[in-house]
Every structure is written in structure tokens, then in C-alpha cells.
Amino acid sequence: MSPPGGKSLQGESAQCTAHRETYEEIGLDLVPGRLLHVFDTGFHLYHCEIHAESGQIKPAVLEARRAIWLPVTDVDDVEWRFPGQGAALRTILNTPYQQLEQE
């Protein structure tokens, strides 16, 4: 399992890539905000808000075979694509947002 992601197009910012890849892979129109973490793989993780008119997850017509909302409590229960990704996500998701803003 992995959060939506992919390679940036030439001249595309990481935030624009996050928006585009999320839409292409699972059909959600998200608004990337603050950068939360950059993984060793170069993957950028952003705090995102769902655009008011985004709609529902629609992986069947897009790139992903399957997409789910994963409760924070279940992060350790799945096999992640990259080693250490689940542990890093758990740490980030369990850190109060105010504390992340100070880092």
C-alpha cells in the first residue's frame, strides 16, 4: 500500500505533483498545504484539504486498483510499499498539527 504519488512533470512543483497524482490515481481533488515530511525515496507528504466539490474516491476509472480511507489506528496493520513508510506515517499522523507547524 502507498499514498498516491508519482514523478513530477518538467517544471512542476511538488505540491502540483501531489494534486495531479492524487486526482489521477484516486479521483480526489485535494488542495495540498504544508509539507509534512520528505521520505528517503524523495516522496513529499503534504497536509491536504479535500476540495468542497471533490466527490468520492473513484479508483476504478483511474490508475489505482483500489483505494480506501485508512484510520490512523490501522496504519500498522497494512504492508507498505517502502520499508519504514508505515512507521513514518504513524509518527507524522500521531504528531499534533501545531507541533508539526513548529518544526
The whole-angstrom Rg is 14 Å
> How many β strands by DSSP?
2
| Rough outline | globular
Largest sheet: 2 strands, antiparallel
**Unreliable stretches, pLDDT < 50, 5 or more residues?**
none
Tally of DSSP helical segments: 3
Strand order of the largest sheet: 1-2
- SSE run: HEEHH
Average residue pLDDT: 81
What percentage of residues falls in helices of 4 or more residues?
A: 25-40%
First CA to last CA: what distance? 27 Å
Beta-strand share of residues: 15-25%
> Which class best fits the helix and strand makeup?
alpha+beta
Question: Topology of this structure?
Answer:
Elements: H1 14-26, E1 30-38, E2 44-50, H2 85-93, H3 97-102
Antiparallel strand pairs: 1-2
What can you see in these coordinates?
The protein has helices spanning 14-26, 85-93, 97-102, and strands spanning 30-38, 44-50. The protein is an alpha+beta fold and 103 residues long. A two-stranded antiparallel sheet has the order 1-2. The mean pLDDT is 81. Helix content is 27%, strand content 16%. β1 (30-38) and β2 (44-50) form a beta hairpin.
Tag the structure with descriptive keywords:
103 residues, alpha+beta, 27% helix, 3 helices, single chain
Give a summary of the structure in a few sentences.
This protein is an alpha+beta fold and 103 residues long. The protein contains three helices and two strands. The model has no long low-confidence stretch (mean pLDDT 81).
